Input
Amino acid sequence: MNEVILQLISLQALDLELDAIDQQIKVHQDGLTQRREASVERQAGIEKLEAQIEELEKEHRTLDLEMTEEQGHVKNRQSKMMQVQTGREQTALLKEIEDAKANVKEKEEKIVGIMAEVESLTSQITEEKNLLKGEEEGLAEEEGTVKKAVAAIKRSRKSQAAARDKESEALVGNLLRKYTVLRERRNGLAVVNVLGGVCQGCFMSIPPQKYNMLLSGEQFFDCPACQRIIYHQSVEEQE
Ligand SMILES: [Zn+2]
Output
């Protein structure tokens, strides 16, 4: 095999390993971010429930005041009953008292409903807070684990990167530049094998005469379709 193509192949292998390492780090960090976001969301949910309770308690206080007023009205009308003379006046007062009592009852029922709702919201909050506490403890633990894992990955990445840089020194400047640009534009793959006349980067067929030129393993050139650097190495040679 051509010396330069072998260098390119081994450089790319190291670069792909580095890509995989970076991906590993990203997966760890994305996992943490997701969990943090879930925690923030749960916290916001709790605050919303608390605001709901506050609103209900305000309504409760208003109803209490209205009820006291209504009860006062009932008493006032009842004492007035002693003073009325005619049956018509009496009927009117009785009707007023009846209505006021009905109002009191209605408000009482509303208050009972509100109290039940507050109770259910309160237990919901307790449950959410417990979940949040568990999540936050788990998260703190996970943060420590991820930090250690990432540090270990980064250490091995460092020696890997040093090996990679040493490998790249062997390549002449313009070939390295071409390789770097191709890696950026072609999803990390700059150098690809051609098997059975098909580019393993873009899976297009290479013209037969070009493929014949590659077969010796001594030549390399650009894929006419994807511009990646192509070479030929039989499957047996790769093993
Ligand atoms: Zn191609």
Observations:
- Residues 14-170 form a domain with the Helix Hairpins fold (CATH 1.10.287.1490).
